[in-house]
Design a protein that fits this description.
InterPro entries: DRG (IPR045001), G_OBG (IPR031167), GTP-binding_2 (IPR031662), P-loop_NTPase (IPR027417). This protein has a domain of about 60 residues. The protein is about 30% helix and about 25% strand. The two termini are about 40 Å apart. The protein is built from five helices and ten strands; from the N terminus they run βαβββαβαββαβαββ. The protein has about 180 residues and is α/β, with parallel strands linked by helices. Strand 7, helix 4 and strand 8 form a beta-alpha-beta unit.
Length: about 180
């Protein structure tokens, strides 16, 4: 997410709030909660860890709000009621986000230092070409990209032409 360093945290907070409202969760992992609606049998509730933010009564109230009266629920981590609602709704997207603050040449060094030490943040200046190599390095890390070099049997690998893929992506053989 590209942000203007001269606008402070206002721009970041507005964009985060807007993305949160449409179901995009930045720099968060999917809650480790098993949820399965059933045809009958009532509510089967269990947790593998002590819950500090949710209780069985609260889970039942949330399920009743969504008109779910029969379900299996298993908490594998201490989660918030909002996390549980996200699991019930099931259409949330969890993705990594790198906050890139541009125009750092126009703010004080103390402010640059503060922004640079924020989690998931990189400070750059496109105009002065500052810190662009570090940004590229972090983008590769956040997007989990890798270079694949191919070769035909019996030939030397061509390192000038790479295929860029996400780590963990499956490759289908051709022909």
């Amino acid at each position: 997410m590209m942000l203007d360093a001269t606008k402070g945290d206002v721009q970041r907070k507005l964009l985060e709030k807007e993305l949160e409202s449409v179901g995009i969760r930045l720099n968060r992992s999917k809650p480790n909660i098993y949820f399965k609606p059933k045809k009958g049998g009532g509510l089967s509730y269990n947790s593998m860890v002590p819950l500090t933010m949710c209780s069985e009564k609260l889970v039942q109230l949330i399920l009743h709000e969504y008109k779910i009266f029969n379900a299996e629920v298993l908490f594998r981590e201490d989660s918030t009621p909002d996390d549980f609602i996200d699991v019930i709704v099931g259409n949330r997207v969890y993705m990594p986000c790198l906050y890139v603050y541009n125009k750092v040449d126009q703010i004080s060094i103390e402010e640059v230092d503060r922004l640079a030490h924020e989690p998931h943040s990189v400070v750059i200046s496109c105009g002065m070409k500052l810190n662009l190599d570090y940004l590229l390095e972090r983008l590769w890390e956040y997007l989990a990209l890798i270079c694949l070099y191919t070769k035909k049997r019996g030939e030397v690998t061509d390192f000038s032409d790479a295929i860029i893929m996400r780590r963990g992506a499956s490759v289908e053989p051709c022909g």
